[in-house]
Design goal:
about 160 residues, mainly alpha, about 5% strand, lipid metabolism, Plipid/glycerol_acylTrfase
Amino acid sequence: QTILQGIILLPLRAICIIFILLLAWLSASIATFCQPGRGFLPLKGWRRRMIQTMLSGLTRTAYFVMGFQVKVKGKAASLPEAPIFVAAPHSSFFDAIICALTGMPSIVSRAENLSTPVFGTILSALQPVAVSRQDPDSRKNTVAEITRRALSRGQWPQVI
């Protein structure tokens, strides 16, 4: 009976996750379409709210469909309290649930990730601080960009 449930549930879960991923891609595409100052200016207004609500909700739903139920204890620091949010160890696909639970902050990511189909569009909507591993000044530039965003007095979302 367990094998039969798996045979039925696995394709249903896969279809749901693909559907959720496409909705996330569509939401990210709409929110960043004709974005003024793409990558240099923070998303504002309906674009930022759309990213926060849609992508956060879709990410939580995807994890629920995969069988994960996340329970939050306590409260994350707000943007004025902590413009930089630290989460560790960040080395797996569980990092996305941290983003969903904290209101879809900006992240620090490899620049190559932005060119990945579907995921790159979603990642771009989070307005990441892109790190180029080929650029010798990348570390200095990344620190400068994180500092600039942290000192923006709430114009940029938290950086994780």
